[in-house]
Specification:
Shape: globular
Order of helices and strands: EEEEEEEEEEE
Distance between the termini: 40 Å
Length: 117
C-alpha cells in the first residue's frame, strides 16, 4: 500500500515564505499526476498546483507567481515553494499522487499552514 507523507507547514507571517515537501513510498507504481490541494476552514478542498508526467505545472490563479511546484519522479517527491504568503493562504495542504492504473490515487494526511497578518 502506497503512502504519501507531507512535511513542512507551520506558522509564518504575511509576506514570508514556506516550503512543503511530499514523498510517495511503499510501492513502485509509475507516477502520472502529482499535485497539491488545500482546504481552508469552512471551505471545500481546492486545487493549488498539479502536473501530469512530462507536462507543465498548472496553478490556481491566486497562487500564480507566488507558488512554485517541483517534482522529482525518480525520487518520487514533489515540493511546493510558497513565497509572499497571504493570510488567505491559511489552510491544510494536501499532497496528491496518482498512477496510471485505476485505484492508484493517494492522498497525504495534510499539513497545516497558518499565515498571520
Amino acid at each position: 500500500q502506497a503512502q504519501v507523507q507531507e512535511s513542512g507547514g507551520g506558522l509564518v507571517q504575511a509576506g514570508g515564505s514556506m516550503r512543503l515537501s511530499c514523498a510517495a513510498s511503499g510501492t513502485t507504481f509509475s507516477i502520472n499526476i502529482m499535485g497539491w490541494y488545500r482546504e481552508a476552514p469552512g471551505k471545500q478542498r481546492e486545487l493549488v498546483a498539479i502536473s501530469y508526467s512530462g507536462e507543465n505545472t498548472n496553478y490556481e490563479d491566486s497562487v500564480k507567481g507566488r507558488f512554485t511546484m517541483s517534482r522529482d519522479d525518480r525520487k518520487r517527491t514533489v515540493d511546493l515553494q510558497m513565497n509572499n504568503l497571504k493570510p488567505e493562504d491559511t489552510a491544510v495542504y494536501y499532497c496528491y499522487v496518482q498512477g496510471y492504473s485505476l485505484g492508484e490515487n493517494y492522498w497525504g494526511k495534510g499539513t497545516l499552514v497558518t499565515v498571520s497578518s
